[in-house]
Structures are given as structure tokens and as C-alpha cells.
Amino acid sequence: MASPFEAALSAADATMNATFGEEIEIRPRRPVPRGMPIADPNRPIRSVAGIVTITNGIGDIGGARLGSKLDGVTRLGLEGASVWMSAEVAAGLGYAVATGDLVVRTEKAGLPSFAVSAPPRPTEHGDVTLLLAPETIP
Q1: 3-class SS at 94?
Q2: Is 0.85 surpassed by the pTM of this model?
Q3: Roughly how many angstroms between the first and final C-alpha of the chain, as a whole number?
Q4: CB 104 within 8 A of CB 27
Q5: 112 with 134: CB under 8 angstroms?
Q6: Dihedral sign (CA 60, 116, 111, 90)
């Protein structure tokens, strides 16, 4: 039997998914030495609810500086992306998401797909955050 805390957390997760979530497709892939990743036949494609977060920022690559002048500074536009999945959604996948798997935002046609860029980050409550990088493979 679930504790009152677990029941409250499950209700909060469901509300977050209904309010902020969108349908995403997890397409498992496996790496190929010196080649493009290919579909992993041992893990099926799943459509699940997830909360996608895109962040933007500016980063400096500093060079030689003199005083407050910006000589030698290169500025880069940075973009980060992640997906949060509730414990129930993550458990419902039936497998662990792996680095290199493809994440497609099915409700946002025309936007780039993303590759999972780091091992999944689970919490003690079972929810999972996936760090993503824009997919450059056609």
C-alpha cells in the first residue's frame, strides 16, 4: 500500500504532466563502431508524457584581457535541453533510457529531435531527467 506521501507525489506528478507535459517518443538506439547509431531491436519505441525544458544562455571563452576591456573574448550562444519523466512514466517504459537514444517531440512538428547526451539522472523518488543535445544525424 502506498504511503500518503507517495500518493500525494503521484497526484502532483500527474498534475504536472497534464499541465506542462507533452507527448514524446523515445526511440532506443545502439552505437555502431565508426558509424551512425542504429535502432535497438531489443527495446521498443515508446510514446510517453514528459516535460521538455529548453534553456538559452551566453557563454564566454576568455582570452587575454586587460582591465575591463573585452579583448580576446569570444561569446557563444548556448542552448540546453532536458526532459523530465515522472516515476510512473519512467517505470512504464520497461527499460532504461540510454545515452544516444533519440527523443522526438511528437506534438511539435518541425522542431529538431534530440539525442540523450548523458546517462539518465534518476532521483530517490524514481523520476528521471534526461539531458539532451540537438540531433544532427538526418
Answers
A1: coil
A2: no
A3: 47
A4: yes
A5: yes
A6: negative
